[in-house]
Amino acid sequence: MAQLIDGKAVSKQIKEETAKEVLALREQGIVPGLAVVLVGEDPASKVYVSNKQKACKACHIESFGYVLPEDTKEEELLQLVETLNRDDKVNGILVQLPLPKHIDENKIINAISPKKDVDAFHPVNVGKIMIGDYDFLPCTPAGCMALIDSTGVDISGKRCVVIGRSNIVGKPMAMLLLHRNGTVTICHSKTKNLPEICRQADILVAAVGREKFVTADMVKEGAVVIDVGINRMENGKLCGDVDFDAVKEKCAAITPVPGGVGPMTIAMLMKNTVTAAKIQNSMK
Ligand code: NAD
């Protein structure tokens, strides 16, 4: 049976360290602040936003919530982002995705000041990640890296396979593994012989969005398996992209869903907000 990688415990530790750092900053008169913008009524987004605000409270970070109606015009949202860009109390800006269809997500992401872009989605930050000289890491891949590190595995020289090539997870995840000298393959919906490629992985990251997509026959004995997927099963319960019960018998370490990558994403957001506050106060 594999080691269970406890995302709750690792994220708790990161949040506690962040909280201490924030208290020290507050003593110097610096109060890190995060603006969280939600447009519309998407139930999952509402939960994410509420969890992010709770985490801010636990880390002593000031949170500024903006809940806008579904029919908010793109121009209105752009104006809000512009106001937040200029607001000194706001160090980080998070616009919860997905946005309603009539709003161009790229336009909104591009409007956020790269210095306040705590999701690291702005092209400037994406470019910085590409060249390995970054201030912020995208929260989910950064969380995955922390979980891999928590197992004690040395990434250098390892065969790493990332399933999924989204801008939010797959691509930056592959880049972070590459920066740590992994030998990285990205698989996607057009990949041929996907199970065979996955079987070569010492470190396998699944970010597909399909229930139990990774089966035991796709996993190498002794691999580290990181499951990013969040899928809702017919019975209403959450499950990942990995067939957890079967794969755990074969791999060395595995993240559960829930309780794996999910809590890490929020912890990394808190960390990025503190980094943003430091940058904006010329402390970094
Ligand atoms: P996405 O839909 O943007 O990307 C999915 C990727 O999977 C695509 O690149 C696609 O090429 C690949 N894919 C789809 N079908 C495939 C197939 N049959 N074979 C191989 N590859 C295939 O999704 P995303 O935003 O990257 O998210 C992926 C999953 O991770 C989702 O379940 C999402 O809910 C979850 N997620 C979790 C967190 C977290 O905090 N835990 C954060 C972000 C996303």
Would you give an account of this structure?
By secondary structure, the chain is of the alpha/beta class. The chain folds into 2 domains: 30-115, Rossmann fold, CATH 3.40.50; 139-262, 3-Layer(aba) Sandwich (Rossmann fold), CATH 3.40.50. It contains 10 helices and 11 strands. The strands form 3 sheets. The chain has a 6-stranded parallel sheet with strand order 1-11-8-7-5-6. Helix 6 (139-150) packs across helix 7 (170-179). The chain is globular, with a radius of gyration of 19 Å. The chain starts with a strand and ends with a helix. The mean pLDDT is 97. The site of nicotinamide-adenine-dinucleotide has 23 residues, from helix 10.
Query: Care to count the β-strands?
Result: 11
Strand content: 15-25%
The set of bound ligands, ions and cofactors reads: nicotinamide-adenine-dinucleotide
Low-confidence stretches: none
CATH class of the largest domain: Alpha Beta
Across the major sheet, the strand order is 1-11-8-7-5-6
List the domain count as a whole number. 2
Name the structural class.
alpha/beta
* CATH homologous superfamily (4th level) name of the largest domain: NAD(P)-binding Rossmann-like Domain
